[in-house]
Amino acid sequence: MYSFFSNLKKCRDNSDLYPSVEVVIANYILENHDFIPEISIKEFAKKCNTSISTVSRFCRRINDSDFKTLKEECRIYNSFLKEKEVHRKNEKKNYFIDLNDSLLETEKLNDEAIYDQAINLIKKSKKIYFFGTSFSNILAQNASEKFMRLGKNTICPLAASSQNIEVKKIKEDDLAFIISFSNNNFQMNRIKKYLREKRINTIFITSKKDSKNINEIFLMVSSKVYKEFESPLIQEIATNYIINNLYLKYVEDSDKK
């Protein structure tokens, strides 16, 4: 759900990178998601002043899906918004302490040896592909930009359709990063499946380890979260800590040479 609406927002907010008709469609969905589950693709196309085939192409490009899935994503999102209007715990948060605890736990979960293994893979890689959805995609872009500035050839596809195209271009001397706190959503599971079938070297930044494959490295994030909030107020910072720590250790290792 979140990745779908994040992809819509990327399209709408980066209008110079997408065809104008797709920007119109994305903006229409973001403004009218409440009644889209009740209309047909023909009605939807008419409201966006475009064709049914263009709407179908848009669905494939934005979420690698179809109009039926688009309607279901809107329905789930609408239901979620109504439920969230109900309640949150009325307890005061000490964000500084909670965040500090998360960072300390994240630090303890990763020793120098695991960072050294990750740095070795980064050094040997010809290209580095970064994957993530929703908030994690923002962190993936952050990491991609940082390592590009260190001279690495980095790629960070935004939409699911772009990710599904780019992942098939990865070669055995490349490296993949999967940045996903839960390590368990539909799109990242699809990416993981392909990477594992091709035995691609992969670094995970996550709170959940799900394999012991010798070509995979897991940099673990504290599992601490504010469950009553959908935005990653704690885990975002902990994940960024690992990205920045890896960046610094990579620079330090390079300076020794």
Topology diagram in text:
Elements: H1 2-13, H2 20-32, H3 41-47, H4 52-63, H5 67-84, H6 95-109, H7 112-124, E1 127-131, H8 135-148, E2 153-155, H9 160-166, E3 175-179, H10 186-197, E4 202-206, E5 216-220, H11 235-256
Parallel strand pairs: 1-2, 1-3, 3-4, 4-5
Helix pairs in contact: 1-2, 6-11, 7-11, 8-11
Concise description?
The protein is α/β, with parallel strands linked by helices.
Give a verbal description of the structure:
This protein has 257 residues and is α/β, with parallel strands linked by helices. The chain is 56% helix and 9% strand. The chain has eleven helices and five strands. The chain has helices spanning 2-13, 20-32, 41-47, 52-63, 67-84, 95-109, 112-124, 135-148, 160-166, 186-197, 235-256, and strands spanning 127-131, 153-155, 175-179, 202-206, 216-220. A five-stranded parallel beta sheet has the order 2-1-3-4-5, sandwiched between helices. Helix 8 runs parallel beside helix 11. The model has no long low-confidence stretch (mean pLDDT 91).
**What's the number of helices?**
11
What letter string, H or E per element, gives the SSE order? HHHHHHHEHEHEHEEH
Shape: globular
Strand order of the largest sheet: 2-1-3-4-5
- Please tell me how large the radius of gyration is: 20 Å
Helix content: 55-70%
Q: How much is the average pLDDT?
A: 91
List key phrases describing it:
single chain; five-stranded parallel sheet; 11 helices; globular
